[in-house]
Design a protein that fits this description.
This protein has 216 residues and is α/β, with parallel strands linked by helices. The protein has two domains: 4-127, 3-Layer(aba) Sandwich (Rossmann fold), CATH 3.40.50; 139-212, Orthogonal Bundle (Arc Repressor Mutant, subunit A). It contains ten helices and five strands, in the order βαβαβαβαβαααααα. It has helices at 13-24, 38-48, 64-73, 90-98, 110-121, 129-139, 158-168, 173-180, 184-198, 203-212; strands at 4-9, 29-35, 52-56, 79-84, 102-105. A five-stranded parallel sheet has the order 2-1-3-4-5, sandwiched between helices. Helix 2 packs parallel to helix 3, helix 6 packs parallel to helix 10 and helix 7 packs across helix 10. The radius of gyration is 18 Å and the shape is globular.
């Protein structure tokens, strides 16, 4: 089985070196590229095609938020995990809005970081939707998108809309199932359909989608 391809983006060579040694020590993980700033990162990702990018936020030339946005907009993007110093960080919220699938604290335990890489590669966001909602509420960032908010949900059925709005508030599958009197498996199926119809990658992006369009 081929390993998970990881790219490192950080302006501190010593920190990158430590990450590389940690990641390369794992049988299922492999570092395939490094960059020291956001501009280098965009070029490096296009060339090395990693599965997961560990992205620092504060860097010269181009920061991690802009680099994340550029990589995601280029299409066929890898999963991006932002490295941050603070738990409730406005920049982490901006990076998630730009397309990151979660963030990890720079002083996290090595095993947690390795688990986060595997988790995000498997398609699950590393930050819970409830934490995403809290993050956005904390910083009050809700730029409105043009048009009628309801137009954004036109493709969803009535039941899918109900489940979308509960998920957008950060409720778990179990909480949604209890609220809607259905099984967790049914909720999971609905969520998968909602993500597919709206062109979203995971539940964190669902929360972002809802906040940007003032649906919550």
């Amino acid at each position: 089985m081929s390993g998970i391809r990881v790219a490192l983006v950080d302006d501190q060579p010593l920190f990158r070196s430590g990450l590389r040694m940690l990641i390369d020590s794992q049988d299922d993980l492999e570092v395939v590229g490094e960059a020291g700033d956001g501009a280098e990162a965009v070029t490096m990702v296009a060339a090395s095609k990693p599965d997961v990018v560990l992205m620092d936020i504060r860097m010269p030339v181009r920061d991690g938020i802009q680099a994340t946005e550029d990589i995601v907009q280029a299409g066929d993007a890898p999963r991006i995990l932002v490295l941050t110093t603070f738990d409730l960080d406005e920049n982490a919220a901006k990076a998630i809005r730009a397309g990151a699938s979660g963030f990890v604290l720079k002083d996290a335990e090595p095993e947690f970081l390795l688990a986060a890489i595997r988790t995000v590669h498997a398609g699950t966001a590393v930050i819970a939707p409830s934490a995403t909602a809290e993050l956005f509420q904390h910083f009050g960032e809700r730029p409105a998108q043009a048009g009628d908010p309801e137009e954004h949900l036109a493709e969803l059925s009535a039941r899918e809309r109900e489940i979308f709005l509960l998920a957008a508030r950060g409720l778990s599958n179990a909480e949604i199932a209890k609220s809607e009197f259905v099984s967790e498996a049914t909720v999971k199926t609905h969520i998968s359909r909602i993500l597919a119809k709206l062109g979203l990658r995971d539940r964190v992006q669902l929360v972002v989608f809802a906040y940007e369009r003032r649906l919550v």
